[in-house]
Amino acid sequence: MSPYLAAEDLSMFGRDPWWLVVVKAVFCFAFLMVTVLISIVMERKVVAWMQLRIGPNRHGPWGMLQSLADGVKLMLKEDVVVKRADKVVYVLAPVVAAIPAFMAIAVIPFGPAGNEVSIFGHRTTMQLTDLPIAVLYLLAVASIGIYGIVLAGWSSGSTYPLLGGLRSCAQMISYEIAMGAAFASVFLYSGSMSTSTIVEQQTDRWFVLLLPLSFILYIVTMVGEVNRAPFDMPESEGDLVGGFNTEYSSIKFAMFMLAEYINMVTVSAVAVTLFLGGWRAPWPVSTFWEGANHGWWPMLWFTGKLLTLLFGFVWLRGTLPRVRYDQLMKLGWKVLIPVSLVWLMLVATVRALRNENYDFADIALYIAAGVLALLLLSFVADMFRGKAKQAEQPAEAPPAFDPMAGGFPVPPLPGQELPPVPRRRSRRERELIVSGGPDTQGDGSLGGSTDGKEASDG
């Protein structure tokens, strides 16, 4: 076995009594709900601050209870079910979207596995459970949540929700590939898919420093995964009214909003676990304080990092405009996926050389030589491509664009031009044509007759 593969020790999990498992599960649920309430108020406050507004300031001190007021308002609203909806799927779709969002938090470590805390006199780990393939479990749960959005769009019996559901499905497929490649880089460096082991492997250096491109790729893909601005095309009010949840109201609409914010918390927790050291204290604190990573302190560091990433979501929403759907797909398929695959091969090469005990300077030299070789090949290919284009004969002019060729008007594609529109005759010209006046003689195209002048000359 390679010395760089981590030895997984998951024996401390699965030993808790059933009531303690229930207590920890309730804590995870409460942690998500409280974080969502804080996130909603923080989003409205931060966006108001960025736009020089006051923001919520009516409910509770400084408006801190605005989230509770919104929840009560949504629950008391009229629950409408549209006639054309598939009733069973229409009701189950919000549940399918919300439940997987809660499931992902089960494998997130809030503290070190070896540092047990006391709960009602029992020593237990600060994590509900862990798996040898915990990160794959996270990917699977995140993929299930998209079914709720797709089914909501389909079951509503309306065009706009259906388009929003299809957009969300295509967006998830294109962005989850790059996300999986970013995860694979972490697997190669940590030698494990267990979340607790991955955090343990970041004792000396966080993976955000070792794998900066993987972290950037994951940050971009996690924003697209949860359909947040600037990638909120599935619920774009500019062209889809409200997207997949257009036909929903009351508590069902609230469940979709809850699922969105819980997914924000989940993907942020995954980013903290895989790249930002998890529950570990930041570098300045961990150097001069030995007890920073013991007791209940790790949960404080984890929550602080989590709220920082949630602030990043709000910051993006308040600063970046929504992209077009074709730009969204182009970024996913033509930029993120190729870059993530090339980066993954580079990381795998470095790990293979490190496992063979190559020196870091030699590895850097090999990588630099490979990059220079690729640049040289690209330069030579561009030269030959330019000469080939010069040797080509000029292409024939494309046929004129006919917007009515299919029986109904269509807009021109890039490179096509609409035929010139005939000039509309003015009222004066139409009167002269009808009367055959003398002003029509100078413009034969107006169709004026010269019979009147010939008669007068005669």
UniProtKB/TrEMBL annotation:
Leader peptide range in chain numbering: none
Keyword set, alphabetical order: Cell membrane, Membrane, NAD, Oxidoreductase, Quinone, Translocase, Transmembrane, Transmembrane helix, Ubiquinone
* Biased composition annotated in UniProt, kind: Pro residues: 409-421
Q: State the top-level EC class.
A: translocase
Enzyme Commission code: 7.1.1.-
Please name the PROSITE patterns in this protein's record.
COMPLEX1_ND1_1 (PS00667), COMPLEX1_ND1_2 (PS00668)
Q: Please give, as recorded in its UniProt entry, the membrane topology of this protein.
A: Multi-pass membrane protein
Listed InterPro entries:
NADH_UbQ_OxRdtase_su1/FPO, NADH_UbQ_OxRdtase_su1_CS
One family name in Pfam for this protein: NADHdh
Tell me the segments the record calls region Disordered.
394-458
**Catalytic reaction equation(s):** a quinone + NADH + 5 H(+)(in) = a quinol + NAD(+) + 4 H(+)(out)
The record's subcellular locations are:
Cell membrane; Membrane
* Membrane-crossing segments per the record: 18-42, 88-111, 131-154, 175-194, 206-224, 261-279, 299-319, 331-351, 363-381
NCBIfam families the record matches? PRK06076.1-2 (NF004741), PRK06076.1-4 (NF004743)
Q: Which HAMAP family match?
A: NDH1_NuoH (MF_01350)
Q: Which PANTHER family match?
A: NADH DEHYDROGENASE SUBUNIT 1 (PTHR11432), NADH-UBIQUINONE OXIDOREDUCTASE CHAIN 1 (PTHR11432:SF3)
Quote the subunit structure annotation.
NDH-1 is composed of 14 different subunits. Subunits NuoA, H, J, K, L, M, N constitute the membrane sector of the complex.
What is this protein's record name?
Answer: NADH-quinone oxidoreductase subunit H
To which species is this protein native? Streptomyces fimbriatus
